[in-house]
Specification:
The protein has one domain. 32% of the residues lie in helices and 18% in strands. The chain contains 6 helices and 6 strands; from the N terminus they run ααββααββααββ. The strands form 2 sheets. A 4-stranded antiparallel sheet has the order 3-4-6-5. Strands 1-2 form a two-stranded antiparallel ribbon. The radius of gyration is 17 Å and the shape is globular. It starts with a helix and ends in a 17-residue tail after the last strand.
Length: 142
């Protein structure tokens, strides 16, 4: 392990992940480097100790959302962001589903995630204080 990585680990900080040279592999899936870049906003438990990415506490959700949008297959049709509310839809694409475990370790997910629907639909309230999510049981939708 590089010395700079050891210094980060001593401060409970995950090593800084550089912006990836390639976002997608030859099959259209996010590269490992593209997924690792999300760790800059993430957290991870290692040997019973919690470590944080450099941007975890910054709460710059917009930067993270824009980055995820850049590696999300089907782009703006499957990741809808209006500056307040965020909808993520995997559309069954396993490349999108590979992003979710990394995203689930971020402050965005921990603090702003509100609801999930079967089929890969996720909803976040990022900046809208007027909007509330609620779950409502219905007898029949048809």
């Amino acid at each position: 392990m590089k010395m700079e990585n050891l210094n980060h680990m001593e401060n409970n900080q995950l090593p800084l992940q550089p912006y990836p040279e390639e976002l997608f592999d030859e099959h259209g899936y996010p590269t490992e480097e593209a997924l690792n870049y999300i760790d800059n906003w993430g957290s991870r438990e290692i040997d019973g100790k919690l470590f944080y990415g450099e941007k975890f506490v910054v709460h710059n959700y917009e930067e993270l959302i824009e980055y995820v949008l850049s590696i999300w297959t089907y782009g703006k049709d499957a990741l809808i962001w209006d500056g307040k509310l965020l909808e993520i839809h995997t559309l069954g694409w396993s490349g999108n589903e590979e992003i979710l475990p990394r995203l689930k370790n971020t402050a965005l997910w921990l603090l702003k995630f509100r609801a999930q629907e079967a089929g890969g639909h996720y909803y976040f309230n990022v900046n809208d204080k007027e909007y509330n999510f609620r779950v409502q049981k219905v007898e029949k939708e048809w």
